[in-house]
Amino acid sequence: xxxxxxxxxxxxxxxxxxxxxxxxxxxxxxxxxxxxxxxxxxxxxxxxxxxxxxxxxxxxxxxxxxxxxxxxxxxxxxxxxxxxxxxxxxxxxxxxxxxxxxxxxxxxxxxxxxxxxxxxxxxxxxxxxxxxxxxxxxxxxxxxxxxxxxxxxxxxxxxxxxxxxxxxxxxxxxxxxxxxxxxxxxxxxxxxxxxxxxxxxxxxxxxxxxxxxxxxxxxxxxxxxxxxxxxxxxxxxxxxxxxxxxxxxxxxxxxxxxxxxxxxxxxxxxxxxxxxxxxxxxxxxxxxxxxxxxxxxxxxxxxxxxxxxxxxxxxxxxxxxxxxxxxxxxxxxxxxxxxxxxxxxxxxxxxxxxxxxxxxxxxxxxxx
Length: 368
Prior knowledge:
There is one protein chain. By secondary structure, the chain is an alpha+beta fold. It has 3 domains: 15-117, no CATH class; 129-237; 248-366, no CATH class. 48% of the residues lie in helices and 10% in strands. The protein has 16 helices and 9 strands. The strands form 3 sheets. A 5-stranded antiparallel β-sheet has the order 8-7-4-3-9, covered by helices on one side. Strands 1-2 form a two-stranded antiparallel ribbon. The chain has a two-stranded antiparallel ribbon with strand order 5-6. The protein is elongated.
């Protein structure tokens, strides 16, 4: 029975993952209009670090940021060559490396002067987040608690809603333990005086009587209950940290593949195209195995080292008896047509492991 084909929608590609690789001219215009200036600066500075000595690199990068963000043309050239491609359709950029060195070499001397004119500023005292939190607690909620205790001393029987007060002052769950420590200490004093567990506490609070001690203990118990509710609410609202995906060009840095096969007259696609795609065809020239990788993830394939990630159980591989006939089908037909021809093969189909090596030709990628 023919396998049912599943339609998987890929998440639209943006940024560096969506750079067109069929033409350098298109890549150049895409970098100029679509790539964020921060990405361009990052690419330029990364290449500068490799192209210049350390002192010269420091001098060049002492200049304002616009010197790097405006060089989208050089960023496109760097990206293009990192993808394993050569500039052939735009004569002005064939010798871009020499122009790159010449352009940024002019910034070395002025950069050294900028470094000399920089004055050493007095370091600003750094206040830790915990110290900031303690200061905020002491100036807000602790003032309310101290005012409450003053009212008790003056015979005014009242309490405060800590849950509401925390919301009012914008205090987070991190403040709970610090406030709780103070309330528990005060509660223990009243408890020791009420039960007679501590002679000193009993003597210190003998002037207010046990009914008032019991009322104050109940007020503190309600506050402690509010603090527990605040902490539980903070846990419920805690955001789950989502791992940020690595840039496509970084993912494929260590990938192993065969760039070209003279025997089969096939050139591999740029490996950067794998990241984010939903289907990949690979042919191993040594074992003559054809592999169809499928991803069901909304983010498509990712690459870790030399291994494909997000590979679905729908992926399959088989050995080809006549590779020349079948490879042309894989490179030109739709997935349904490829599947129809696959069903006609008499060799066994099995599941792949997702690893790529130096014998693998990257034939084709698809977004469905």
